[in-house]
Each structure stands twice: as C-alpha cells, then as structure tokens.
Amino acid sequence: MSAQLISILVLVAIFVIATTKSINMGVLAFAAAFGVGTLAGGLDADGIFAGFPGDLFVVLVGVTYLFAIARANGTTDWLVNAAIRMVGGRLALIPWVVFGITAVLTAIGAVSPAAVAIVAPIALGLAARHGISPLLMGAMVVHGAQAGGFSPISIYGSTVNSIVSRENLAGNEIVLFLASLGVNLVIAAVVYVLFGGLKLARTRTASRVGASTSGSGDSETGGSDEPETDTSGVIRLNPARIATLVSLACLVVGTLVFDLDVGLTAISLAVLLNIVWADAGKRAINEITWSTVLLICGVLTYVGVLEELGTIDYAGNAVSGVGVPLLAALLLCYIGAIVSAFASSVGIMGALIPLAVPFLMQGTIGPIGMIAALAVSATVVDVSPFSTNGALVLANAKDVDRDRFFRQLLIYGGVVVAVVPAIVWLILVVPGFG
C-alpha cells in the first residue's frame, strides 16, 4: 500500500475516532503526523513540523485571549444586554437581535462555539419566557455565528485565508465573508418565517432584559465576579469595559485599515488590558480556547505531512478523475457538509481546501467561488445536534421535551446538509468566480 493511500486512510480514521470517542482531533492529528510521517514517509522531526502553522497559532491565541478578557470583565454581557434592550417591547425583533449579536461576536474574533455559548443561554431563556420556538431561536444563534464567522479578522476567516495564502491560491476575503453572511442571512429569514417569527409581530414584551445570565464580568477594578449593574439590574459601562470596547475597535481598524497582523495586534491589545486589569486577564488566560488552537494546529500539521508525502496531489488527481469538474466540485461540497455535521468544521476546512488544490490548479473551476462554497458548506451545517454549536443549543433549551427538540434539530440539520451545498455550488461555483 502506498504512503499516499495510508495517509488518506489515517485521515479518515482521525475523523471517525474524533467523532466516536470525543477525542480532540488535533491531538490525533499530531500523533498521526508523527506516525505516518516517520513510518510511511521517512520524515524527520523538521519535516513533520514544517507544516505547523506558527502564524495561525498566534492569531488563534491572540484573538481568543482578547475576547476572553472581554467576556471576563463583562464587556460581552454589556453588548448583549445593550443590543437586546434596543428592541424595546417588539418581541418579533428579538430573534434578529440574537442573530446580529452572534454575528458581531464572531466577526470581531470570537470562536463560533464561544459566541454560541455566550448567547444561547440568553436566547433560549427568552424563547421559554415568551413562547418563542426554541428551534427558531437556536437556529438564529447558530446561523448568526456563521454569518459573521468569515470576516477577515475572525477565527474561521483567518484560518481559511491563511490556508489559501499558503497554497498560493487566488482568494478574496470579502467574497468569502459576504458569501457566508448572505447564505446564513437567507437561511435565517426562511427559518424565521417557517417557525413562527411573523406571528411574534402581534406580541409585545417588556423592554428591559436585565442583567446578564452568564455570571461573567468584574468590577471597575477588575476583581469582582459579578457585573456592575444599576438599580434596575442593567449592566453599566466602567473603565475596564470601555477600554475593552476601544481595544476591539482598534483591532478592527488596525487590521482592516492599516493591514496589521491580526494575531500580533490582538495579543498586544490583550496584554495592555491585562497589565491594567490583572485579575480579569488572569481569568481570561484560562479561557483561551486551547482545544480549538490544538485542533487547528494539529490538523494543519498533518496536512503538511500529506503535502510532504505527495498525498495532496494524489487526492486532487483522484477528484479530477471524476471527469466532470463541476460534478467533482459538488462532491467536495457535500463531503465537507456531511463530515462537518459530525466533526469539527474548522478541521474539515483545514483538510478539504489543501486536498482541492490540484483540482483547482487545472483552471476549470474558479478558486474564489470554490473556496467560498467549501467554507460555507462545511460550517452552515453546525446546526446539527452532533456539532458543538448544535449541542450547545440543545443543552441550553428551557422547558422543552429534549428528545423531541433533539429530533427537530436532527431533521433541520439533515435538511441543511441535503440542500445548502447544492445551492452554494450553483451560486458560487457554476458561474466560475475566481
């Protein structure tokens, strides 16, 4: 058996084991990189570590560290409550506020599961309190997270753009962002109509949402465990939160306007906040999504081993062998969607895009549209109850029959897997963007 075939079978085994045994895929990928690289490829340590994404490691740590500080000092609580209070008594707008909040959180750097973990308890609590469909609110949270998930400074966006740059492919950060935003916005609108959103227009609720339910945040000095609130229970701004909001704004302006490195900028801003408010910074360092960092770095290191062994060219030629480029592109989109519904979306993207490189190099399919289609297909299915985001929604549902709600999420996720890849393929790939 060739080294290329062995490495592909091991990649499949990584996905199966990570799904069935709940083991971090990155840990498996590092071990596989060592085993396959050494035994099948004859690589030394330098050859194995050649694919380690050091620049992406800094992006992941820096952005999640800054966002963890925002969560620890109550800035995210303030943002959530401020946004929800804006709807006043208009109950029909609450699902859209939930969508917008999670979109903004992921767009400015929150990992998708982190954003869902912040907003889902509030959203599902509001659903139970006001008789809103939990499936509607849960879907709005997840699709909101994916809508903002591919901004140039987001984790997903940074990951895909880094992979595209490494593979010397033509990419477009704005097209990638707008594709995900547009697809998820349309899906959210359909869900809103189908699951009772229009009926909410006839109902009003109290305008004050009150203090956060997340229990995070700190005092003006950065030391308390509870957010500062006024007499009505509304979270107030304090110096720590104002400084954090300014830091988030600086991250956006610095990276988009002045083309500063996302990771280095984020970690520098986080360090400045940590120096002034040490207690919040100390708690935040433990909230960095190390599991995500490990997952992405492990998968991309293994992909580097695949490149060293020639597996990328081998697999790309196999896909090209389908004979019909558009059909091959559609198959890749469905592979990404189906596997991602049960495994890590970012891990799937880290593996699929490099595997598609030889196929894209033929020039018959536009790389910009294809990359956007792959990215959207692999993430829009996160509503599945087997994914992290879907599981968070299920776990936070209030006063519902969980078995019934699980089946609803499963059916809805299945519909998304069956329909969306074909639609994004038709819109983004068939016209030949690239």
Keywords:
single chain; 434 residues; mainly alpha; 21 helices; globular
Total E-strand runs = 0
Number of helices: 21
Distance between the termini: 37 Å
Number of domains: 1
Question: β content, as a range?
Answer: under 5%
Inertia-based shape:
globular
Low-confidence stretches: 206-226
Instruction: Determine Rg (CA atoms, Å).
Output: 22 Å
Characterize the biggest β-sheet.
none
- Given helix and strand content, the structural type is mainly alpha
The residue-averaged pLDDT reads 83
> What percent of residues adopt helix (DSSP H or I)?
over 70%
User: Order of SSEs, N→C?
Assistant: HHHHHHHHHHHHHHHHHHHHH
Domain Dicarboxylate carrier MatC N-terminal: 1-149
Protein name: Dicarboxylate carrier MatC N-terminal domain-containing protein
Region (Disordered): 209-232
InterPro entries: CitT-rel, MatC_N
Can you walk me through this structure?
This protein has one domain. The protein contains 21 helices and no strands. Helix 4 packs across helix 13 and helix 16 packs antiparallel against helix 17. It starts with a helix and ends in a 5-residue tail after the last helix.
